[in-house]
Amino acid sequence: MQLTTTPGIDGKRITRYCGVVAGEAVLGANIFKDLFAGIRDLVGGRSGTYEKELQRARDIALEELQQRAHDLGANAVVGIDIDYEVLGKENGMLMVSASGTAVIVE
């Protein structure tokens, strides 16, 4: 299945719009990961732990989006938008949502 942030796919023609699809992932941050990420933030540098969690959440959201598109009979999703939010008490959770339009392309 093709996934793209653009409204179409070069060289392909959209023959049917199947509907809007979305996928979400909400992940809690581990207290020890938070502690070490906080130390890294104090001394400078990137937090590899948070980067991995962001990537994991994005992958889950896109997999859900793809499965929902497949369930509608689509073979592509166009116009994908990915949003990131922090949730929960003291921003202890990360939510990634992905949405787009499921289509059939030829």
Describe this structure in words.
The protein is α+β, with helices and mostly antiparallel strands and 106 residues long. The chain has a single domain, classed as Translation Initiation Factor IF3 (2-Layer Sandwich). 35% of the residues lie in helices and 40% in strands. It has two helices and four strands; from the N terminus they run E-E-H-H-E-E. The chain has helices at 31-43, 48-71, and strands at residues 2-3, 14-28, 76-87, 93-105. It has a four-stranded mixed sheet. Strand 3 and strand 4 (93-105) form a beta hairpin. The longest helix is centred in the middle third of the chain and has 24 residues, at 48-71. It is elongated.
Element-level helix/strand string: EEHHEE
Instruction: Work out the helix count.
Output: 2
User: Alpha-carbon distance between the termini?
Assistant: 12 Å
Task: Point out poorly predicted stretches.
Answer: none
How many structural domains are formed by the residues? 1
Multimeric organization: single chain
**CATH class category label:** Alpha Beta
CATH topology: Translation Initiation Factor IF3
| Strands in their spatial order, largest beta sheet | 1-3-4-2
What value does the Rg take, in angstroms?
17 Å
Structural class: alpha+beta
Output mean pLDDT.
Answer: 86
Largest sheet properties? 4 strands, mixed
Protein name: UPF0145 protein Nmul_A0734
Family: Belongs to the UPF0145 family.
Pfam families: YbjQ_1
Organism: Nitrosospira multiformis (strain ATCC 25196 / NCIMB 11849 / C 71)
